[in-house]
Design goal:
Helix 3 links the parallel strand 1 and strand 2. It is globular and about 55 Å long. It is an alpha/beta fold. A 4-stranded parallel β-sheet has the order 3-2-1-4, sandwiched between helices. The protein starts with a helix and ends in an 11-residue tail after the last helix. It is built from 12 helices and 4 strands; from the N terminus they run H-H-E-H-E-H-E-H-H-E-H-H-H-H-H-H. The chain has one domain: HUPs (Rossmann fold, 3-Layer(aba) Sandwich), CATH 3.40.50.620.
Length: 275
């Protein structure tokens, strides 16, 4: 294990590999306790999360639902609720996976906000988009989609005096693979510190369908490349990222890509620059 691996894993609070099933179960219980404590500390009773159809929101969503169910049982207060919201841009290409995720999560409240009108309305008003290449414009608007989705989640949370859940985990954090003030914005991040295969392991333990557990991860923000795999954008696989974060040996190329990307995306993991 290199010094950089140790440094980066510590900065991201990476959870060590699960030694056995008992360790996995203990981590699930710790995460639920964290979610419940966040609600208590904020003196609110509602959680909101956008469900994409990927394993990250699937896992965070089910943990949220289980947590509010436990709070209701512990307190006798039915005010504790989880709102799962679908946030498609027109018709999502993997809508069947999003629907299956919602069916698995079994949220107290299910909602849908189609963000297409908001994104298109914004795009029409921003003249700076007009001179860009198709690829660059698609990328910029993709980030706008992520930010509009978070605006929608916070609007729902504000209307219900609740908190917004994020789905960031260590394998995405190390690559800066989130939109700043988009999916990177939230009130609590219950998957923080986990690597990708640990998220999948928790989802599997919770009973998620195997096709959703092992679904190819995609941010699905770009219209020119719908469903573009995360790993293609990374230039390395999640297996390599996970291995790096757990202090295992990876190829020199993978090591260089991960360290360079981590360094270049540091601003995304920090508070705004200040004098």
């Amino acid at each position: 294990m290199s010094n950089r691996q140790i440094e980066i894993a510590a900065a991201l609070n990476v959870v060590p590999p699960f030694a056995d099933t008992a360790a996995l179960v203990a981590e699930v219980e710790r995460r639920k306790a964290f979610i419940k404590q966040c609600l208590r500390n904020a003196h609110v009773k509602v959680l909101v999360l956008g469900i994409s159809g990927g394993v990250d929101s699937l896992t965070a969503g089910r943990l949220a639902q289980l947590s509010v169910e436990e709070l209701r049982a512990e307190t006798g207060d039915d005010g504790y609720q989880f709102i799962a919201v679908r946030l498609p841009y027109n018709i999502q290409h993997d809508e069947h996976d999003a629907a299956a995720s919602m069916q698995f999560i079994r949220a107290d409240v299910e909602d849908t906000v189609n963000i297409a009108g908001a994104v298109l309305g914004l795009s029409e008003q921003v003249a700076h988009l007009h001179g860009l290449t198709d690829a660059r414009r698609d990328f910029v608007i993709g980030n706008a989609k992520a930010r509009i989705r978070m605006v929608a989640q916070y609007t729902i949370a504000n209307a219900n005096n609740g908190l917004v859940i994020g789905t960031d985990h260590a394998a995405e954090a190390v690559m800066g693979f989130f939109t700043k003030f988009g999916d990177g914005a939230c009130d609590l991040a219950p998957l923080s510190g986990l690597v990708k295969h640990q998220v999948r392991a928790i989802a599997r333990h919770l009973g998620a369908p195997e096709n959703l557990v092992e679904k190819v991860p995609t941010a699905d923000l770009e219209e020119l490349r719908p469903g573009k795999p995360d790993e293609e954008a990374h230039g390395v696989t999640y297996a390599q990222i996970d291995a790096f974060l757990h202090g295992e040996k990876v190829s020199e190329e993978a090591y260089a890509i991960i360290v360079r990307t981590y360094d270049n995306s540091q601003h995304k993991r920090e508070l705004p620059f200040a004098p």
